[in-house]
Amino acid sequence: MNNTTTTGTRFRGTALACAALLTVAGVHNAHAQKPPVVSDVVGTWTNVNPATPSIIKIVVSGTSAGALTIHGYGACSPTPCDWGSVGGNGFSLNVSSNKAESWNAFYNFGFKTDQLTAVRLTSYNGKAGDYLQVISQSMFAAGDTRYDYESTDVLVRAPSTIGVLVPFETPMKVQSVGSSAANSDAAR
Predict the structure, then answer these.
(1) Is residue 129 a part of any domain in this protein?
(2) How does 50-60 read in b/e, with b if 16+ C-beta sit within 10 Å?
(3) What's the pTM?
(4) Which domain holds residue 20?
């Protein structure tokens, strides 16, 4: 028997002994619990920059068990690109918190993959509010000559309309300060 075989046998024996010890000790699940309170990250988030070349909207939904679904929309013309829905992973600020304050998700578009990492903010540019900073890391497929890149966007949570009745049959007039009624009618 050579040294390689002996070392391999010893390693397998040690690994099996460690696995048995962890099983007996009750440490068999290597995954932590997902933070079940996801209300701070759930909602419809729109980019604060209407001219962004990146993410224009993200819809985050969640369950009481902490599962998240991320539905992204990218900047395309003439309509937004619907990225579809993927599962997301919620994260709390520390090991004793049950409240998700951030999440990550992965999109595979075939020609590239995007890793999104989002962190909730309570202010942006000195203005208090409900914001989400999203970092998107884009990695192109093998053989693509483009360079991998990263972009950062800030999105604001759309006000909730649950329980609010919106009469669609009543047209809303929008008139800016100093404009005439004729101008606002032409804009409709």
Answers:
(1) yes
(2) eebeebbbbbb
(3) 0.68
(4) 1-30
